[in-house]
Amino acid sequence: MSAPLNIVILAAGMGTRMKSRKSKVLHRAGGRALIEHVVTTALDLTSAERIFVVIGHHADDVRKAVTHPGINFIEQQEQKGTGHAVMVCREWVEKLDGYLMILYGDSPLLRSSTLRKLVDRQVASEAAGTLMSAIMDDPTGYGRVIRKGADLSVEEIVEQKAANPQQLALREANMGIYCYRNDLFWQHIAEVGTNNPAGEYYLTDLVAILNRARYKVEAMQIEDPNEALGINDRLDLANVDRILRRRKTTELMREGVTIENPDTVSIDSDVRIGIDTVLEPFARILGQTVIGENCHIGAGAIIVDSQLANGVEIGPYTLIRTSRVENGAHVGPFARLRMENHVGEGAHVGNFVEMKKAKLGAGAKANHLAYLGDATVGAKSNIGAGTITCNYDGFGKYPTVIGEGAFIGSNSTIVAPIEIGAGAFTGAGSVITEAVPPDALALGRALQVIKPEWAKKRRARAKTKA
What we know:
Elements: E1 5-11, E2 28-29, E3 32-33, H1 34-43, E4 51-55, H2 59-65, E5 72-75, H3 82-87, H4 90-93, E6 99-104, H5 112-124, E7 129-135, E8 144-148, E9 153-158, H6 165-168, E10 172-181, H7 182-188, H8 205-212, E11 217-221, H9 234-254, E12 258-259, E13 266-267, E14 272-273, E15 278-279, E16 284-286, E17 290-291, E18 296-297, E19 302-304, E20 307-308, E21 313-314, E22 319-321, E23 324-325, E24 330-331, E25 336-337, E26 342-343, E27 348-351, E28 354-356, E29 359-360, E30 365-368, E31 371-373, E32 375-377, E33 382-383, E34 388-390, E35 400-402, E36 407-408, E37 413-415, E38 418-420, E39 425-426, E40 431-432, E41 441-442, H10 454-465
Parallel strand pairs: 1-4, 1-6, 4-5, 7-11, 12-15, 13-16, 14-17, 15-18, 16-19, 17-20, 18-21, 19-22, 20-23, 21-24, 22-25, 23-26, 24-27, 25-28, 26-29, 27-30, 28-31, 29-32, 30-33, 32-35, 33-36, 34-37, 35-38, 36-39, 37-40, 39-41
Antiparallel strand pairs: 2-3, 6-10, 7-10, 8-9
């Protein structure tokens, strides 16, 4: 591209058909807010300082949803149509050189490769602008592209409500995505009026205005009109989410990931997964999760914003959030890593074990029915079934530190703050309230008492009373 590209993203509307208390562009599909999808695509084409997002309803929330720094936000106080939404950018964009692309904040399926073709088509032509169109089996609801002359340039866009029967029979529809020469756009955009039933400024009117000024407008047809699909209601949102997730599974499978029954899994757009990893049905891999090579993710597992190294095995129906699991570790089935956990290399976390802000050292094991909260467990230690770290006294949270090679007996209750030394043992069923030195045995239970015939006598008394 010989000149810079400026991009305006229209994201000011409320989207009343969504029947929502938040802006339409804040609804999520494929793991991102709709506006974040569009901004990410725009960043593939130009720099952040040349991207302008027009905001209106819930403006502050939309700003927060765009996580990329350097994006410009322009507030549209009144929503008076698509033409007006771009007009409010005049002060910032008119003075810039190059080309102007106009996108919508609720169209997350657009690919940067398609938009780049649109820009290249415009740059290579002598036209004032190029719009994106598609041949549709049923273009109901879309503006029709009216062509003229031997070169079949675009004469005007006629909206559905204003079209005559002959125009309604046309199948080439306007997708609403444009690339204009920036100078010519701003010279003529003020000529767009409100002579329509809605009394709004329609961006589509600019095509006819440029024609009257003896400028040419061209159209670039795309093969799949779904790529420019905008979202109007929850049904559209669900459909777009399905398409985005299908794209993601296709991308991953082509890169060497095995996905069993891909229609059942949910993988967010930003997830990364290494080769030879296997995902079983109904797994959900969400947020910024990164999974290494040769891992196995069990059916129904949910992994959110976490990092898994190579060779990790996650059992079915395991929940992992904001945690890191190192090479060769096993977690699950039916385990829960709530937040900020670190499972060391080769460590094992078994069924019905819950961890919260806990660190399990390399080769350590907690194989059954345990709770490890605010705990640091040394390498090669063993946590017996039923063990609990009592980290909360009703007022504050306290740490437990267990040294390397320690053996914590089944049903041990470890009352924090406390430290258990390396190589120490705790007896099964113990309540441990004081520090345990390295290599010591700690017993915190009452002596067993046996009363012969006690049960027999109790049954006899109960029978007498009956």
